[in-house]
Design brief:
The complex is a heterodimer.
Chain A: H1 2-21, H2 23-48, H3 62-82, H4 84-96, H5 99-103, H6 109-114, H7 123-137, H8 146-177, H9 181-191, H10 203-216, H11 221-231, H12 236-266
Helix pairs in contact in A: 2-7, 3-7, 3-8, 3-11, 4-8, 8-11, 8-12, 11-12
Chain B: H1 2-6, H2 13-27, H3 30-39, H4 42-58, H5 68-85, H6 90-100, H7 104-108, H8 113-142, H9 153-179, H10 188-201, E1 215-217, E2 222-224, H11 225-230, H12 239-245, H13 251-282
Antiparallel strand pairs in B: 1-2
Helix pairs in contact in B: 2-8, 3-8, 4-5, 5-9, 5-12, 6-9, 9-12, 9-13
The chains are: A mainly alpha, B mainly alpha.
Chain lengths: ~270, ~290
C-alpha cells in the first residue's frame, strides 16, 4: 500500500511539474473551463428568473439547486483532474501497442493506466464549486444538520467512485474494440443525465428512465444523493438511497475492476 | 482552378475534384459518424424533462413566448441549424497550417486556399447529411408531436435560405478567425472567446427571446439584452433559422432578418478575403 502511495506521489509531483512548466497553458486551460462553467451558471440564473423551482414541489429552488450545481462541479473536477487525462491516452496506447510497456511493469495495470497523469487546471471548476456550495448553503431555509456534513464527503467520494468505475469500464471496452471514440462521446452524453435533479425525470417515460439511471447505470446517484443530503431535508426514502449509493459505488468499482481484468486477459499486443 | 479554366475544360473541374477527394475522405468512418450523430441527441432527452419540470413549477403555459413543446422543438431545430453552421477545427486548422508552414503548398499551386477550404466543408456537410439523415429523421419522427407542423411553403423556403446562409456565415467567420494566424502564431485563446460568444449569443443554449426581459442602459436610454444580441451575427448560426420555422418571425421582420443575414455573409466574405490577402502578403515560407 505504501509503495502505491509513493508511486502516486511521484505521478502527482511529475504532473505538477509538467503543468507548472507550461504555466500560461495551465492558466488558459483553467480560464477555458471557468468560462464554460460561468456560462452554465448564467443559464441557470436565467431559468430561475422564470421559475421559482425546477419541478413543482421538488424542493429544488435556487439555493438548493446551486448546492446541486456546486456538488456536480466538485465531483466532475476531481474526475477530470485525476482520471480522465490518463484514460484519454488509453485508446491510443491500445492502438499503437504502447499498452505493452504498462503491462510489463511490476505494478497493478489499472492503477498505472488510470492514475499516471493529472490535469490540475481542471480543479479550477471544483474550487468555484466549493465557493458556490458555501454561498448557497448559507442561504438555505434549513441549515444542514451535522450528520449531513459528515455524510457529504463520503457521498461525494461515492459519486467519484461511480464515475471512475464507468470510465474504467469504457477503457476495458477500448481494449476489446481497439477504437471507441463514440463510446467516449457516450460517456459525455450519459453523464449529461446527472446534470439535473432526479426529480425532473417524472411521468410515464421519466419514471422508468429514473429507475434505470438509478439502479442499472447509477449515474443519477452521483450528484443527486450528496447534493440532496446537504441541501434538502432527508426523508426515509432518501436515507435508503444513501445506502443504495454506498452499495452502488462498491459494486461499480468491483465490477469495473473485473471487466478491466477480463479485457486485459484478452489483450493481444499491437506492437511488433 | 485558373489552370483548369485555361485548359478549356469545365470551369468547375477543380472544385468537383476537391469535393470528390473530401467526400471519399469523409466516408471512410461513416459507421462511427452515424453512431456519434445519434448520440448527440441524448442531451435533448434531458432538455425535454428539464423544461417539463420548469413549466410545471412556473405555473405558466408560456415562457418568453415559448410553450414547453416550442422549447423542445427549438432545441431540436438548433441541432439542425448548428449542423449547417458549425465548423469544427476550421479556424484552428488554418492557424496550424500557417504555423507549421503547410499553407505554402496552397500559395504556390493554382488552387485558391479559401475555395479549397470551402469545398472541403461542403464535402464534409454533404457526407454528414447523407449519413446523419437517418438518425435525424428517426429523432424528428419520434418528437413530431412537439412541432407546430407544417409551416407554409414560403416559411420553409425562408428557413432553407437561412440555413444555407448560416453555413456560409459560420464558414466565413471561422475562416477569418483562422486567418488571424498570419499575425498571431497562437490563436487558441481567440478561438475560445469566439466559441464562448457563439454558444452563449447564438441561441444555441437558449432562445434569445429569453433575454428580452433583461434591460440594459441608464435613465436616458434602455434596450433589452435580447435586442443587443440580435444586432450581432451569431444569432444567424442558430436562433434565426429556428425562429423562422417556429413562426416567431413573419412578414417584414422575416424579410429584414434574411436581408441582414445576407449582409453579414457579404461582410464576412470581404473580411475573410481581406485577411487572406493581407496575411499572405506578410507570410514567409522556407524549405520544402
Amino acid at each position: 500500500m505504501m509503495r502505491y502511495l509513493r508511486i502516486f506521489a511521484t505521478f502527482f509531483q511529475a504532473s505538477l511539474v509538467r503543468d507548472m512548466t507550461f504555466r500560461l497553458n495551465f492558466l488558459l486551460e483553467a480560464t477555458t473551463s471557468l468560462g464554460w462553467m460561468a456560462m452554465n451558471l448564467a443559464f441557470y440564473l436565467l431559468v430561475f428568473s422564470y421559475t421559482p423551482e425546477i419541478g413543482r414541489d421538488s424542493g429544488w429552488t435556487k439555493e438548493p439547486f446551486f448546492v446541486f450545481v456546486g456538488t456536480g462541479l466538485v465531483i466532475n473536477a476531481i474526475v477530470q483532474a485525476f482520471f480522465m487525462p490518463s484514460v484519454e491516452e488509453f485508446a491510443e496506447m491500445v492502438r499503437t501497442g504502447g499498452l505493452d510497456t504498462a503491462l510489463v511493469k511490476p505494478v497493478d495495470a489499472q492503477f498505472l493506466l488510470s492514475l499516471h497523469r493529472f490535469k490540475f487546471s481542471a480543479l479550477a471548476n471544483g474550487l468555484v464549486g466549493v465557493v458556490l456550495i458555501g454561498w448557497a448553503v448559507g442561504r438555505l431555509e434549513t441549515p444542514p444538520p451535522p450528520v449531513a456534513w459528515l455524510l457529504y464527503p463520503l457521498l461525494v467520494g461515492c459519486g467519484v467512485a461511480i464515475l471512475y468505475a464507468f470510465i474504467t469500464a469504457l477503457a476495458a471496452a477500448t481494449i476489446l474494440m481497439g477504437r471507441n471514440q463514440s463510446l467516449y462521446d457516450f460517456w459525455f452524453y450519459i453523464t449529461n443525465f446527472s446534470r439535473y435533479p432526479a426529480e425532473i425525470y417524472a411521468g410515464p417515460w421519466g419514471g422508468p428512465l429514473r429507475m434505470i439511471c438509478t439502479f442499472v447505470i447509477p449515474i443519477l446517484l452521483v450528484v443527486n444523493v450528496p447534493a440532496h443530503t446537504l441541501a434538502l431535508p432527508l426523508s426515509g426514502g432518501d436515507r435508503r438511497l444513501i445506502l443504495v449509493t454506498l452499495a452502488a459505488a462498491a459494486a461499480a468499482v468491483g465490477l469495473s475492476r473485473l471487466a478491466f481484468q477480463a479485457a486485459i486477459a484478452k489483450y493481444r499486443s499491437a506492437s511488433s | 482552378m485558373t489552370a483548369v479554366a485555361r485548359s478549356g475544360g469545365w470551369p468547375f473541374h477543380g472544385w468537383t475534384t476537391m469535393l470528390s477527394i473530401c467526400v471519399a475522405d469523409r466516408l471512410a468512418h461513416r459507421g462511427d459518424f452515424a453512431l456519434g450523430t445519434l448520440m448527440r441527441f441524448l442531451p435533448i432527452v434531458t432538455q425535454i424533462f428539464l423544461w417539463t419540470a420548469v413549466f410545471s413549477a412556473a405555473g405558466s403555459t408560456s415562457i418568453a413566448g415559448y410553450s414547453r413543446n416550442d422549447f423542445v422543438a427549438y432545441y431540436l431545430l438548433t441541432m439542425v441549424a448548428r449542423s449547417f453552421s458549425s465548423m469544427p477545427g476550421l479556424a484552428s486548422g488554418i492557424a496550424r497550417s500557417v504555423r507549421d508552414g503547410s499553407v505554402k503548398k496552397y500559395l504556390v499551386q493554382p488552387v485558391d486556399y479559401v475555395g479549397f477550404l470551402l469545398a472541403a466543408r461542403v464535402a464534409h456537410k454533404l457526407v454528414y447529411f447523407a449519413v446523419a439523415a437517418a438518425p435525424f429523421a428517426l429523432v424528428f419522427f419520434l418528437c413530431r408531436s412537439f412541432f407546430p407542423w407544417p409551416p407554409e411553403p414560403p416559411v420553409v423556403a425562408a428557413y432553407l435560405a437561412s440555413l444555407v446562409m448560416s453555413f456560409l456565415l459560420g464558414f466565413l467567420l471561422e475562416a477569418t478567425l483562422g486567418m488571424l494566424g498570419f499575425w498571431f502564431l497562437e490563436v487558441s485563446s481567440l478561438i475560445f472567446v469566439y466559441m464562448l460568444a457563439q454558444f452563449l449569443l447564438s441561441g444555441h443554449m437558449f432562445p434569445i427571446d429569453m433575454l428580452d426581459g433583461i434591460a440594459v442602459g441608464s435613465a436616458g436610454w434602455s434596450l433589452s439584452l435580447g435586442d443587443i444580441v440580435r444586432l450581432l451575427p451569431f444569432q444567424y448560426t442558430a436562433y434565426f433559422p429556428c425562429a423562422i420555422w417556429l413562426g416567431k418571425l413573419r412578414g417584414a421582420d422575416l424579410a429584414v432578418g434574411l436581408a441582414m443575414e445576407a449582409a453579414w455573409v457579404v461582410a464576412a466574405a470581404v473580411a475573410c478575403r481581406f485577411a487572406f490577402l493581407r496575411g499572405t502578403r506578410r507570410y514567409s515560407g522556407y524549405g520544402g
